[in-house]
TrEMBL record:
Keywords annotated in UniProt: Signal
InterPro entries in alphabetical order: AB_hydrolase_fold (IPR029058), Dienelactn_hydro (IPR002925)
Protein name per UniProt: Dienelactone hydrolase domain-containing protein
GO molecular function (one): hydrolase activity
Superkingdom of this protein's organism: Eukaryota
Domain Dienelactone hydrolase residues, every copy: 72-275
Alphabetical list of Pfam families matching this protein: DLH
Signal sequence bounds: 1-23
Lineage, highest ranks first: Eukaryota, Fungi, Dikarya, Ascomycota, Pezizomycotina
Keyword Signal appears in the UniProt entry: yes
Species the sequence originates in: Bionectria ochroleuca (Gliocladium roseum)
Amino acid sequence: MTKIHSFYDLLLVVSLLTPRTLAKCPVTSVCAIAHTGPSIVSLCLNNNERVLKLTANPHIHTVTLYVTGKHSNTAVLYLTDATGIVQPENRLLADSFGRAGYLTVAPVLFNGTPAPAGRDPYNPSFNQTEFLARHNPTVIDPMIDATIRYIRNVPGINRIVASGYCFGGRHAVRVLAEGRGVSASFAAHPALLQDDEILGVTGPVTIAAAENDFAMSIDQRRHIEDLLLNSTQPYSLSLYSGTEHGFGVRGNVSIPKIKFAKEEAYFQAVRWFDTWGKGSKWK
Ligand SMILES: *[C@@H]1O[C@H](CO)[C@@H](O)[C@H](O)[C@H]1NC(C)=O
Ligand SMILES: *[C@@H]1O[C@H](CO)[C@@H](O)[C@H](O)[C@H]1NC(C)=O
Ligand SMILES: *[C@@H]1O[C@H](CO)[C@@H](O)[C@H](O)[C@H]1NC(C)=O
């Protein structure tokens, strides 16, 4: 039994005995995350309401959306990696943002021809140069803008935040540019991120970086940190050990440190949106 020597010891004993101090709060609950199993919705290919017509884009005429989650004031614009929303892991992660309380909308970005889902980026059947040329920002930006317009018309929504992975990670930063209508962004292992895109952000941005990323060298990551240091916007950058490019969405969750990093990157995004994506005004 602890000897009580002073008034302060007494206070400590009293506080330890008070049940209130024993209450445990769920800081982060992994039950919001699904790594496997069926996604909540299949693609809404036959639902005309969710197939947007594009008039200004000479390359793409319609955008199909994957819509999940409940109605909320803030919506998550989910921007996939190159494997697209047909990849189950992308749909499951979009659903996980839904379980975090956000209406989540993912445009189908690659018009039926996403990159193959294999984990090998050097898959010989995949011509990355050709893929990136075909899906360059002049093609993708209007698709994302149409999705943003759709979300803005959903009753009750007054703010949009973006969560993007690899290919979509770059676009999650691009949509923070002036006038595009997004308030805060999360980008996991963004590929091809340009200096002017980082310098042009008009809202809070957070990045999840992989230790070993063929799409972002250590020097590039440090350069991104230098650019963020000069930013007047709130920012953070987390580096996850034992991870490779893609871990935030397609990491191998049977490896404990990768599963942890994938979950932690999800919490990084949700906390960012809970903190910086609230409010009642359109940008
Ligand atoms: C990949 O695509 C580029 C651009 O279309 C082309 O120049 C190149 O030859 C292709 N590479 C292979 C290995 O097919
Ligand atoms: C950050 O700002 C400083 C001071 O203006 C400048 O010297 C430096 O080059 C900037 N860093 C980057 C990465 O642009
Ligand atoms: C995931 O990791 C486990 C354990 O190391 C391994 O057996 C499995 O082949 C990996 N799966 C993929 C798709 O790489």
